Fold each of these.
Amino acid sequence: MIIHGIGLDTSAKVAFQSHAHTDHFVNGDVIFSTRATKFLSHLKKGGFYKAVPFGKGFYIGDYKAKLYPAGHMLGSAQIYVEFDEFSLLYTGDVKWFKLRTAEKSRFRRADVLIIEATFGVPMYNFPSPKGVEKGLVAFVESSLDRGKTPTIYANQIGKAQEILKILEVHGYSVRTSRNIIKVAKIYEKFGIKFKNIDKDGEVLLREFRVPKVGNFLSELYVSGFGNLKLSNHADFWELMKIVEKVRPEKIYTVYGYAKEFAKILRGFGYDADPLHTGVGLGKL
Ligand SMILES: [Zn+2]
């Protein structure tokens, strides 16, 4: 979406890119992001990125802005912008609970909230991060007990590094792909070290692909939609906590269950509407 000329995860002359997942990549004369997002994006694309630290005031176009951690992956950011008529918080992809390899998210009050709704219906109620880790360890142990190589599929950027870190904490060595290692090397520049990458590792970590039916005994697909619910997105209940924290007068929902989530929010008394990406904020 483009608001008062500022592209939010949308290409524009002046744009903000919330994080380094390819579906959020943007182009522009200048792209504001965190330093980690800039480095990670440069693995796959060019572009002039202006890196801004969390919590430091800066101007995006003519407007005062600040970035806040979104907790979705290393460097993922929300942007707070003071437009003339209203303040805006755009979450990008966001997580309430702290992940091991992402900065802890922080939320602030704003007049208008644009929030993602990837898992914006109540059936998405993910287990706690501790519970998910237990599930991961149980899978690895049962595969090893059966003499099988535990094989885990995860998104190459963000999720794979989170899995690596969890496996390291639980004492497992991991063999993985060059692409996942390339991303991990950038994480290391930002202080998140991985000591368990080993070409003879006991666990195999691979880039996500479409699950092959019938292989679920020794293969694990890590996604809010997969068979291990380790998600770097907020589930429905986390989204509700974020909304309560921001206390916005107006909410726009984007991505995933945008329509359904807006309807639920209206049921709770919020002024909420889905926003189709690429469309402005109407009268705002
Ligand atoms: Zn993402």
Amino acid sequence: MLKKYLQLGLVLCLIFSVTMCTKTTQNLEEALNSISAESLAKNTQILSSDEFEGRAPASRGEELTINFMKDEFLKLGLIPGNGDSFFQDVPMVEINSVPEGSLAIKGNKETNEFSFGDEFTSVTLRTVDEVSLDNSEMVFVGYGIVALEYNWNDYDGIDVTGKTVVMLVNDPGFATKNPDLFTGKAMTYYGRWTYKYEEAARQGAAGAFIIHETEPAAYGWGVVKNGWTGPQFILPSEDQNMSRCAVEGWLTLDVTQKVFQQAGQNFEELKAKAIQPDFEAVSLDLKASLMLKNSIKESVSRNVIAVVPGSDRADEYIFYMAHWDHFGIDPSLEGDQIFNGALDNATGTAGLIELARAFKNLGSPPKRSIALLAVTAEEQGLLGSLYYATHPIYPTFKTVAAINMDALNIYGKMKDITIVGYGKSELDDYVKEVAAEQGRIVKPNPTPERGSFYRSDHFSFAKQGIPALYTGTGNDHVVHGEEWTRALKDKYTAENYHKPSDEFNPKWDLSGAIDDLRLLFKVGYKLSMESTFPNWREGTEFKAKRDADMQRQ
Ligand SMILES: [Zn+2]
């Protein structure tokens, strides 16, 4: 009898699971098919239209953008992600620092003056009326890096308190391509300007200038000029950021060479010395003076968050994120003044809508909840994601993973997909499995020297320990191959990246973006149906944080 019941049970189970399985498959197909190039194009076009004014935080463009996202999420039947609101306030301080006159550099019986914007940039994060450098001694500190794990200290044996440090961009590993120095050509966090200014402040410097060189910076002077000559947005801090340097800026290579010449030094020679572990900082014996007048405005920008509630473990979340903001309008420009940010990142923002629709079209909800987060002020230094990650609405230890989209594929179908920060987390395995289903292969990001892992919003989540995935678009076009793709991407970086010409083009081939969105959907879907938590791999910088956080489960 017992055996018979068992058999019957087994048969019933089989029938039941086959039915379930078929049903799930059908729903999954339906969900995947609802991700469409037409609506991705339409929403990208709307978000990057002139009407949206370049989507600057705390602007009219913001109002239009966040309400557009909210309305789209509402139409799809998603629920608000922050209590009864679709928005999370992100308090920000907007500082507009304008130099009084020029940057004056005195020494060796001459004074040279340099002009703001074309020759140098300068901002302050100190939220006070004015800051200045007054005859501040200039010191060349190589890469400006203190990295104990690499046995490296560019500030060793020198006190730069009140002085103005001048430093190279990127890190010695990139400069030498020596795989044993730092991480070879892959940029470390020490290569990023964010780190260099932070370190200069820790050392007590009054001023900190980074020397711009296109190759190690990974972008031209135009990007520096656009990014650093308008208002800067920061999160408010209790000490008014007095712990930061008074002045943070960039010098063109041309200006740098002139300054070193004035100091009687040879820039190329000192640069060559800076890659040696025994490099010692060199005083240039020059005095820098500069005054910045600040106008300070406190403002509030907003992240947008919507949720597809899970059926079984609704308190556990898979995040999809994309920054909705871009640079707004620059009235000082001739001709086109609107930074439409079509690729960067109207595409990713519109991608959130596609994913939301797909999860709603599953028929039955996923087991874990799905959060769609459109963050603000990425272009100002990942502020919206930083604010969310440090003021999370859902506990970080209940946040299974974060999947970031920043600039989707506009070039068509690819044989591959790249992971930025490949090898760091177990999420790679999910991508590999799903990519194989699409007949695609997974590759590491081919340009780790650009430090992309530290340059978009997933990094804010990673710093809090949350496993974060950031895929690139793939580079091996199914018809045209790799060289063709690289040429187009380089052209975009040179001509359109962070410029008013990053505009929607109806000729874009979004078929590859649809592949990527379907892939990311499946990754999130798999995670949503599991009960395990993926982690960072052994030896990565975020694993200890995650392990400690998961103890709170
Ligand atoms: Zn972006």
